[in-house]
Design goal:
Structural class: alpha+beta
Low-confidence stretches: none
Radius of gyration: 25 Å
Strand order of the largest sheet: 1-2-7-6
Shape: flat
Length: 162
């Protein structure tokens, strides 16, 4: 595995420290439990983790700002079992996923040993691009000039009818 020294970049950049810490973290991320990250549609994503042997109440999901934490801890077994071979890992795990801004967890399910986390990017209306009318004295209504034009023509039609 390669290791990179980001020190020269820290000296010549401002505001990229979070990006560099994400790169550092990506190099040392845990390999267990195995997981897939899938793009379902333009604004929807899915994380699927193989967590065989864990019950629903032994897994905890927490989203804090742009970080999703998934952790699992087996509860103590009632009565001691004697295993001849133990191939299903039941060790404690903690996996962290860094999410883009405006991505939130929509839900999670555990079925057949697979934990599925549904994610969706929801950009607030105030941050979406909007068209601005050129040459008009009235401010654009909504996200599209066509809506503003339609609203203006409806007002004019009502004033003519009256």
């Amino acid at each position: 595995m390669r290791t990179f020294d980001f020190a020269p970049l820290y000296r010549s950049t401002v505001g990229f420290d979070r990006l560099f810490s994400l790169l550092d973290q990506a190099e040392t991320s845990a390999a267990w439990p195995p997981y897939d990250i899938e793009k379902v549609s333009e604004d929807a994503y899915r994380i699927t983790m193989a967590v065989a042997g864990f019950a629903q109440d032994e897994i905890e999901l927490t989203q804090h700002d742009t970080t999703l934490h998934v952790s699992g801890q087996k509860k103590a077994q009632e009565g001691e079992r004697q295993y001849l071979h133990r191939g299903i890992a039941g060790r404690t795990f903690r996996q962290t996923f860094n999410l883009a801004q405006h991505v939130r967890v929509m839900g999670a399910s555990l079925e057949n040993g697979l934990l599925t986390v549904e994610l969706k990017r929801e950009v607030p209306e105030a941050l979406k691009p909007r068209r601005i009318a050129i040459g008009g004295t009235q401010a654009a209504i909504g996200q599209d000039n066509a809506l503003a034009q339609n609203a203006r023509s409806q007002v004019e039609d009502r004033s003519k009818a009256a």
